[in-house]
Amino acid sequence: MRERGIRSALLLMALGLASTTGAPVAAAQPAPSFVVTFPQGSAELSEDQRRVIVAAVERFRTACRGCTQIEVIGHASSTESPGAAVALSHQRAEEVAADLIIEGVGIDQILVRAVGAGAPAVPHPKDDEEDARNRRVVLLLR
Q1: Could you tell me which residues come within 8 angstroms of residue 76 by beta carbon, excluding any fewer than 6 positions away?
Q2: If one looks up domain 27-141 in CATH, what number appears?
Q3: Where does the secretion signal sit in this chain (predicted)?
Q4: Chain segment 63-111, per-residue pLDDT in tens
Q5: What is the number of other CB atoms lying within 10 angstroms of the CB of residue 120?
Q6: Which of 6, 111, 113, 117 is most buried by its number of CB atoms within 10 A?
């Protein structure tokens, strides 16, 4: 019976699910991300927003070892027109993706998604500043 326990422990260690020291195994690092926020009802990019995109591309090219894709996830806030939230979040994501292409990222390296108001950064914003955090495009370097 003891041999079976040792085999199980060795298997867990081989799979990276246990450690020999008894210390917890480090979790995988989250993908580097960048956030581009937008004014209410808008999908137009400003110079400040373009600087965020350029920084993401720079990180993607130089510091993100093993990254092969940029996931572009468009969001809208719940205060924006409910019927148009998904379309607006998609339009925002497409605008950012177009800038990524202008910056030299290959179209095959970009994955665009739109989630509308369904995944807020701030579920119950108290003011416009908090609500602005929901009107965004998240860039995940993968």
Answers
A1: 84, 85, 86, 88, 89, 92, 116, 117, 134, 135
A2: 3.30.1330.60
A3: 1-23
A4: 988 999 999 999 999 988 877 999 999 999 999 999 999 999 999 999 9
A5: 19
A6: 117
Pull the structure tokens for residue 83.
Answer: 């019927």
Tens of pLDDT, residues 44-59:
999 999 999 999 999 9
Query: 123 and 64 in contact (C-beta within 8 Å)?
Result: no
Q: What does the alpha-carbon distance between residue 110 and residue 31 come to, in Å, rounded to a whole number? A: 15
Vertex 75, ends 83 and 79: CA angle to 5°?
Answer: 50
Alpha-carbon distance of 50 to 48, in angstroms, equals: 5
